[in-house]
Amino acid sequence: MWENRQSTMNFNTPPTLLELGRRSLLQDEALTVSALQELPLELFPALFKDAFSSEQSIILRHMVVAWPFPCLPVGALMRTPHLETLKAVLGGLDLLLAQKVQPGRCKLQVLDLRDVNHNFWNVWTGMEDGVFSPDISHPQSLIYHPIQKGKQAVTVWINLSVNPRHSSKYNEYFYQWAKERKDVVQVNCQKIEFWTNPFYDPCLLDIVEPSSIQELEVYEHWDLETLAMLAPDLGQMINLQRLLLHNIHISLNWLGNKEVEDYYVRMIIPLFSKLDKLQHLYLNDVCFVNEHLDQVLGCLNSPLETLVITRCKLSELDMSHLSQCPRVHQLKHLDLSGVDFINLSHEFLARLLKRLTATMQKLKLKSCMITDFQMDVLLPALSQCSQLTEVDFLMNFLSMDILKKLLQHTANLRQLTKEMYPAPCEVYDEFGNVLPHRFQQHCSDLMGTLKVIRQPKEICFMSNICAGCGEYSVYNLEAVLCSCWQ
């Protein structure tokens, strides 16, 4: 009842004088443009938001020219790329750059086109405290100043997603605009995503300052040859913090040709040595990891916080190096899901976990073919990982006894907030089908064992896929079971 009354009260709240003034301005574009140089500072953000919402391109363009703050974070308003707004804002930059003398009140240094949360708009439109805080009007964290080139006047921040299957007129327009103005505009890119092989245009980074790139993600079936084309540019990304490579394979043209494979690997791996700021490394289904992991990690110059090596084949030598590599001794997140450990020496993984007892927060060993014997070797080190908040052992082959032992060894890990375990082997028949009554009974027993030791926050026991419905059987704190058993 109160909520309805409150909603009605809000609905009937009359507009303020400032809101009425902005509405009046927006109804007369010529008046608005002529008044910008005299407009009070505090009205600019709210008026810009109003013009943005009503897609008044002419007003937006001229507001860029008169913008009285060092940064214009328009990307925070543009949750999805909007070509006409981009044209208006970049058109305003063109007007600004064309003027030999910068307008008196204009302080614009940075145009931020990234879709990121930004406090600026809430503060200056009165939605948060500290409406006229000078710190908010001058967001130093957004301003990047490498060596100045030519007569550069403005810095533009943007995140790029390059996908030829879904070409973006927004990206195409920006690319052409930036290419024609690279002598006066510096383009910084915090994050770049590349999709779909074969595609990599080295000219793309002609418009981007490579040292501004902090995150690089490569997806969908790139081959080594294409990745090697990226390698020289990768070596210039000296501030790269996060690198994700997904599904990098050998081209069918060179499949089985070890000489060609080694040639491309020699082009790619040494570039890792230039990534001094790299903290998060994700390698998913990457062909050159096998028997080269020592070279990849050996090239790094600083410790990693995140190491994700998933769906990759690793050799004994790879695991040996991983267990003693100095660049992984401070890992907070380790994910080796999909790495087959059935033929690997389990001592290497145990040794690695022992080195990470003071730092590791997330451990994922999903679908690693881990059996009772291997898990038994891991338990002493695992029980000492006092910072663990999340573990994932799904899709491994563990018995009821070893699962109980695992839960007992995690008794003192009080920071665990998310736990994912496989259902015990005893819940399956000889054909691998889940037996509902066994599943419910054994998972209930395991949950009871754990609750005697400590109270879990988020936990589940999950089976293999059910042949009846194609779903996983899940037992959690709410005892959710397979849908076909209902």
Automatic annotation (TrEMBL):
Record-level GO BP terms? negative regulation of apoptotic process; negative regulation of cell differentiation; negative regulation of DNA-templated transcription; positive regulation of cell population proliferation
UniProt KW keywords:
Leucine-rich repeat, Repeat
What top-level branch of life does the organism fall under? Eukaryota
Q: Which family does it belong to?
A: Belongs to the PRAME family.
State the name under which the record lists this protein.
PRAME family member 5
